[in-house]
């Protein structure tokens, strides 16, 4: 919501509800910390990649990066996800690269396609882990989101922060975008990764880079520099980031349209912005939902999470050391 990132009378009106949310959140977390509420320990180490604010912060590209880095060390990795946007009533289940995103949600399919690791989804993360562990026996499981899901014990917590929007107006829901207060929660996590903007002294800087476009119909790959004028759509947590990425690559966006995060695209949704003689660009996350009715002029732009080599190596070393995996391949 726009008023979360600017001064507005509405945030002050909603502050009493934010205070109530803070009180409930505090009690809930304390209940798990003290054992009043039971939490569950997975049979293998769990790394949670989450955030403190609502909206797209770049968690999924970081999950893909971590999976690839751990795989390079010879470690068997699995991923669990809530499966937001999926319409299935049958959980848990394993997601493959060819899964229907209407059933699974878009991000699990994206992760499965990019990494080829086993992905399990369920609103009940314990069920996902039990299914994943029984089928593949991973050495580490990465949870895409779930920082506030204290019912699941975790070995490593990583928080992704939007470097441009940061924490908005600094208020908790519904007066602001925050699920937890950063000054308290960030002191307890293992690492804070800043996506874009300027990283603070205690944060790891990450940039999402885009270099090519992939045709949804043919799979053809072209460098972004081969395009000049495009139309663009985005159904992600923060669509302006995608549009800005294209412009930073020198592309001129003639028309653009933003949709809600995890939007369930239909062919008719893109009819007004789809002009046959102009390439239509979208995110990789949106492409998994549009592939079934894609046109020849539709392209998606995969992004890669880039972290300085020394910082990324240090982060992976820290994860491996903390979860107690003694043997792995040197990178």
Record keyword descriptors for this entry:
nine-stranded mixed sheet; alpha/beta; 9 helices; six-stranded mixed sheet
Describe the protein in words.
This is Tetraacyldisaccharide 4'-kinase. It holds the Pfam family LpxK. It catalyses: a lipid A disaccharide + ATP = a lipid IVA + ADP + H(+). Transfers the gamma-phosphate of ATP to the 4'-position of a tetraacyldisaccharide 1-phosphate intermediate (termed DS-1-P) to form tetraacyldisaccharide 1,4'-bis-phosphate (lipid IVA). Keywords: ATP-binding, Kinase, Lipid A biosynthesis, Lipid biosynthesis, Lipid metabolism, Nucleotide-binding, Transferase. Helix 2 (59-72) packs parallel to helix 4 (106-115). The strands form 2 sheets. Strands 3-4-2-5-1-6-7-8-15 form a 9-stranded mixed sheet, with helices on both faces. A 6-stranded mixed sheet has the order 10-9-14-13-11-12. The chain is of the alpha/beta class. 31% of the residues lie in helices and 21% in strands. The N and C termini lie far apart (42 Å). It has 9 helices and 15 strands.
